[in-house]
Amino acid sequence: MNARAQLPAIAEHRPPQIVQAVGIFGSPDKFEHAQRVAKVFSDSALVPPHFQGKLANCLIALNIADRMGEDPLTVMQNLAIVSGKPCWQTQYMIARANKSGVFASRITWAAEGKAEALAVTASAKLADSGEVVSVAVSMAMAKADGWLKNAKYQSMPEHMLRWRSAAMLIRLYAPEVMLGIQSVEEVEDVSAGAARDITPARPAVQTVIGAPPTSAARPSGPPRIAHAQPSKSEAAPEPQKAEPSADEEAEACVAQFEQDAQHAQTEQDLEECAALVEPLEESDRLSRAQRNRIESAMESTRQRIAEAVKQAQQPAKVEVEEAEQVEPEIDPNDPDFKRGVADRQAGQKRCVIAAIRENPDRLSAWKAGYDSIDGEA
Predict the structure, then answer these.
(1) Which of 153, 176, 243, 296 is deepest in the core (most CB within 10 A)?
(2) For the chain, how far is it from start to end, CA to CA, in angstroms?
(3) Dihedral over alpha carbons 141, 145, 150, 154 (to 10 degrees)
(4) pLDDT digit string (tens) for 53-101?
(5) Is the separation of the CB atoms in 119 and 166 below 8 Å?
(6) Can you count the helices (H) and strands (E) in the chain?
(7) Inter-CA distances, 241 with 44, 192, 199, 201, 359, Å
């Protein structure tokens, strides 16, 4: 009786369900409303290309914005996709961390050294404990981890190290602010340096004719004559070349685009070259450095095409100017033309009318009439 009497009490203290639907997936009504909102964003040109026309991406971004208590457009404008992984723009991470309340003060930086010895330290004070925490990064670390593939480490090294140190500080001491999602630079480095299988192919086992076969080289099926030569089908298969990775394919397409752009002669040629890399841009398979290379190649090609068109138009302009210099035909009914004819017929040697002599156009008409009957008496 006592045991049964305690059952309701135990049921009342049963722990709550651990796995719960959160965000826009919490109820059918919220999910239906979120789909309509996501459709608006997917049809908009104000969101980045990886959200335009992609309802599912917009829907997930809305859920992230709901969990963060953030404006959906702000999230979409600062959420990138690299190799299929979402990642934040670093400046947005810093802004969120500064106003999150985790840090009692804004993130600050201290730089020391120059060139290869440059190092930057990001620091902040924790609001709950008052402890000052910091993370330091250096050009030596950037070189060791392969960050220097990004050309901006050459043009603005201190700026890039500031972003790196701040992103690491936030992910170490305030990962909940950004839901644990990494920065764009961190994901790009991991994608570019993804581990590949470099194990060499296993060599084929050589069998000595007449010797007893080992367990590794013993063929299956009935016994074979020892001195018989193995057929081509029984020979060890040649090791196949590893298929290129997605990053290698993207790099090959970018390199091919740069080469083709150098030979483009018209804007249409350049558009045909750009069609090679458009699918990669739409699927966000290109890194920031590769996008910069494409933009640089397109800009230089457009300048070259424009210069060639300008030079081709110069001879035509000269011909027009020469044509304009040709003296216009004079009307035979012009009074000065008729005067020249009459003076020639009268046997005069020159124009005696001062008004005609002082006016080049009238004098030209007089001479045309005078010369029109050359040889006539």
Answers:
(1) 153
(2) 154
(3) 30
(4) 888 889 888 888 888 888 888 888 888 888 778 888 888 888 888 888 8
(5) no
(6) 16, 5
(7) 44, 20, 12, 10, 89
